Amino acid sequence: MRVGFIGLGSQGAPMARRIVEAGFDTTLWARRRASLAPFAGTAAKAAGSPAELAAACDVVCLCVVDDADVEQVAYGRDGVLAGLRRGGVVVVHSTVHPDTCRRLEEHARVKRVPVLDAPVSGGGRAAEQGSLLVMVGGDPQVFAYCRPVFAAYGDPVVHLGATGAGQTAKLLNNVLFTAQLGLAADALALGAALGLDRAGLGRILPRGSAHSFALERVADAGGTLDRIAAHAGGLLAKDVRLLAGIAESADAAGVRDPGPVRKAARATLDAMGL
């Protein structure tokens, strides 16, 4: 299987390296040539455009920043869809709106090109270790075809439903994480107000039944949300708002009105000044 990868950032680069090391015939493209430098001396090849990359590949993975970036590399004369052959697959690893993936699927259908949305969670370290969580939406047979690629950097790799399901799952993950950040910061602040050592609490709570990844992040940040807001607040706010919009337009009973997790996530963003 020939694999193309676009989006060699802090998470995408180690994903691409895992693909190369797994023995796949790999082609890369990047806006900045400097992003390709770490792959010098590997078996990976470089393409001059997304279309050129796609023409040499069976599966093209996109791990760019946002919806606009996905559309920019996918469409147009030099885009992925212009070069990908019939039966080739586009995989969206970026965290974007589910509708962005569904629109891409509609455009790709004209060329008989299937689309999977497969956002990931875990960051660069998990990518290096091959332990990213990969959440996939799309045709089950196409998922089975692409799974060996996903297994190069993902464990677990989970199929969740039709196109867009992976994105919805990723947004729900980030909303729950945002809510937990706020709860963790509030618990540490409450303990400090009651006379407990905040740093000490940050050491013991992650070792007890209150343990969570969010609690670890808040404790590492000194017990407040300030550093987290500066580093990741914008992205978390984007994802909370995206899920809120999806829920508001949903037909399922009880989905439109915010429940505890969405209220807690919103309160966290308020505390961050977002």
Protein model, in words:
The protein has 274 residues and is an alpha/beta fold. It folds into two domains: 2-161, NAD(P)-binding Rossmann-like Domain (Rossmann fold, 3-Layer(aba) Sandwich); 168-271, N-(1-d-carboxylethyl)-l-norvaline Dehydrogenase, domain 2. It contains twelve helices and nine strands. It has helices at 12-21, 50-55, 67-74, 80-83, 98-109, 123-129, 140-150, 165-193, 198-204, 213-220, 226-248, 260-271, and strands at 2-6, 25-29, 45-46, 59-62, 89-92, 115-117, 120-121, 132-137, 154-161. It has a six-stranded parallel beta sheet, sandwiched between helices. It has a three-stranded mixed beta sheet with strand order 7-8-9. β5 (89-92), α5 and β6 (115-117) form a beta-alpha-beta unit. α1 (12-21) packs parallel to α6 and α8 (165-193) crosses α12. The chain is globular and about 65 Å long. It starts with a strand and ends with a helix. 45% of the residues are buried. The mean pLDDT is 96.
State the main characteristics:
single chain, about 270 residues, alpha/beta, Rossmann fold, N-(1-d-carboxylethyl)-l-norvaline Dehydrogenase, domain 2, 12 helices, about 15% strand, globular
CATH H-level homologous superfamily name of the largest domain: NAD(P)-binding Rossmann-like Domain
Helix content range of the residues, please? 40-55%
**Reported CATH architecture of the largest domain:** 3-Layer(aba) Sandwich
Q: Strands of the biggest beta sheet: in what spatial order? A: 3-2-1-4-5-6
Strand residues, percent: 5-15%
CATH topology of the largest domain: Rossmann fold
Q: Quick one: biggest sheet?
A: 6 strands, parallel
| Structural class by helix and strand composition | alpha/beta
The CATH top-level class label of the largest domain = Alpha Beta
Q: What is the 3D shape? A: globular
Q: How many domain regions? A: 2
Element order: H for helix, E for strand:
EHEEHEHHEHEEHEHEHHHHH
